[in-house]
Design goal:
The complex is a heterodimer of chains A (138) and B (399). Chain A is mostly beta strands and 138 residues long. Chain A is built from 1 helix and 8 strands. Chain B is globular, with a radius of gyration of 20 Å. Classes of the chains: A mainly beta (138), B alpha/beta (399). At the A-B interface, strand 1, strand 4, strand 5, strand 6 and strand 8 of A face strand 5, helix 4 and strand 6 of B.
Chain lengths: 138, 399
């Protein structure tokens, strides 16, 4: 146990956390307009249907860094500082974003547009959270 | 449909009081609120019995694990009105983002509609024991589950990310921001009631500041404090008979958050909201950016000044950092666009828009003493543009 806050899955989010535990990124897709939105809302923010019936679908794990910050003091307990948070636009859909830790650590050089892919951190038995790792350009 | 504010210049500020700003106080917040309200009513040349309308927003704006108690850590109008011996016929609380602008606009509306003749508007800020935004949560449900397990929590990481976006995109330096923060602290240091009274800082002090969420240091954030501000508003016809020079409300505009990733908006989303506010602000008030000579922009986090300057059209997009470096906001230059002449939040404490409202009022009523500038049209902004951001335009010449 890391002491970091652990997610509490609910009826809507359970599939996401179940897949995360298997190191698979799934994202909610509106069954009306077929667009992804993250995090899932009560209504679909894209087509505004009142019955989005979001389904969590596996998505490609690549994306690019939009911006980042190095957290040297955290408001939350259990985190080892410093750590890097990245805002990533996923390849799966234009404008689809996720925030996660950059698991390469604070000394890795970083710039806007750098390619990353999803990687998971195991926080507790059965609980893993998605983060990102830099993809080395070849 | 006309965007013009129908009650343009029909409502005015006629009095105010600002308490001493302290880190924490032995005096209960409710007591400070009562004293400050009574001072404001007296300043307006009125008595508590004449105040028949009350407006406020009582939110304790922390992401920490603090419980609120009326009269102790928050002060609502419902709590305050009976303790002043007033006979209210209208009390309302603004609930939502954009607390000071939202409640101020509601006060204006109430007077314009005739729901009250004299309104007391107040805002009471409290600094709870312990760290202001620290949260000892060990599990995260609801919206927090999507970001808190990763370590993303509270406003600071979100603003740091947007500011980093700005720096990367436009090549802005920390030196430019140093000049902005030094300007805020310079003007706050000149306010006898300020938490930072007599304590300006230098560019070197700023550059030596330890980063907490890159690229931001503590000096980019306002410090949590306890303080109360109170204002008396009335209709333009009643204002003429009162002792202070009235400052009229010409109109206002707001923006509300787009659906976005929990507590994180991109720089573009922030700027879009600001541009939207600007467009409707000029429609509402009949003024244009060139008319504004008493600007006071919200600076709870220092980069907000850049975002407001650019999105409202006072600077080309991407240029605010250069504008600041070139002395564009230096209050000691009578020709500058001195958006922090009152010291703002960084120069006075975490007062959630009170310093901006106060400085607009003081400049336009001619009560700014040694800080007095030539002023006829003021603009205060509050919050970040995308997060219940709002702007209110004032004038001292309703003709």
């Amino acid at each position: 146990m890391s002491g970091r806050p652990l997610p509490i899955p609910d009826e809507q989010s359970q599939p996401f956390w179940t897949a995360s535990a298997k190191h698979v990124l799934t994202l909610p897709r509106c069954s009306n307009c077929q667009k992804f939105s993250f995090p899932p809302d009560i209504v679909c923010p894209q087509c505004h249907t009142l019955e989005p019936a979001f389904e969590f679908q596996p998505v490609a794990s690549g994306g690019k860094v939009r911006t980042w910050t190095v957290i040297r003091q955290s408001f939350l307990s259990g985190f080892e500082t410093p750590f890097v948070l990245v805002d990533v636009e996923l390849d799966a859909q234009a404008g689809l974003r996720m925030i996660g830790q950059l698991l390469d650590g604070p000394s890795a050089p970083l710039k806007v547009g750098d390619r990353v892919e999803v990687a998971f951190e195991d926080l507790a038995p059965g609980t893993s959270v998605p983060g990102f790792k830099l993809v080395k350009s070849s | 449909m006309s965007g013009q504010f129908r009650a343009r210049n029909q409502v005015a500020i006629v009095g105010y009081a600002q308490s001493q700003v302290v880190r924490r106080s032995d005096e209960l917040l409710g007591i400070t609120a009562i004293k400050t309200a009574l001072d404001a009513i007296k300043d307006a040349g009125l008595t508590p019995g004449q105040i028949d309308g009350f407006l406020s927003s009582s939110l304790l704006p922390t992401s920490g694990d603090h419980r609120s108690r009326d009269g102790y850590s928050v002060v609502s109008s419902d709590w305050l009105a009976p303790r002043l011996g007033a006979s209210p016929r209208y009390i309302a609380g603004f609930q939502g983002k954009g607390q000071i602008t939202g409640s101020f606009e509601a006060a204006t509306n109430a007077l314009a509609a005739g729901a009250a003749d004299y309104v007391l508007l107040h805002r009471a800020l409290y600094n709870p024991p312990g760290k202001y935004n620290n949260n000892p949560m060990t599990s995260a449900g609801g919206d927090a589950q999507w970001v808190a397990p990763q370590g993303f929590f509270g406003a600071l990481p979100a603003i740091s990310m947007a500011y980093n976006e700005y720096m990367q995109r436009y090549g802005a330096s920390r030196e430019a921001m140093a000049h902005l923060v030094v300007e805020a602290r310079k003007n706050g240091a000149r306010q006898p009631w300020s938490y930072w009274a007599g304590k300006p800082i230098t560019v070197a002090d700023y550059m030596a500041g330890e980063l907490i969420n890159d690229p931001m240091s503590k000096l980019d954030c306002d410090i949590p404090v306890q303080a109360v501000g109170a204002y008396v508003l009335t209709t333009a016809d009643r204002a003429k008979d009162l002792p202070n020079k009235p400052v009229y409300i010409s109109g206002y505009a707001n923006a509300y958050p787009e659906h976005s990733l929990s507590l994180h908006w991109t720089l573009d989303e922030m700027m879009r909201a600001g541009a939207d506010i600007g467009k409707r602000l000029w429609e509402s008030t009949g003024f244009s950016p060139a008319d504004i000579d008493a600007p006071q922009f919200y600076d709870g986090f220092s980069p907000f000044i850049y975002f407001w300057l650019e999105s409202l059209g006072f600077c080309p997009v991407g240029e605010a950092h250069r504008f600041v470096l070139d002395g564009g906001i230096n209050s000691d230059d009578p020709k500058s666009f001195a958006v922090l002449s009152g010291g703002g939040a960084i120069g006075n404490g975490r007062l959630h828009g009170l310093p901006q409202l106060l400085e607009c009022y003081l400049q336009l009523s001619g009560r700014a003493a040694e800080r007095q500038r030539k002023a006829s049209v003021g603009l205060m902004t509050y919050s970040a543009p995308h997060f219940g951001g709002g702007g209110v335009v004032f004038t001292n010449d309703p003709s």
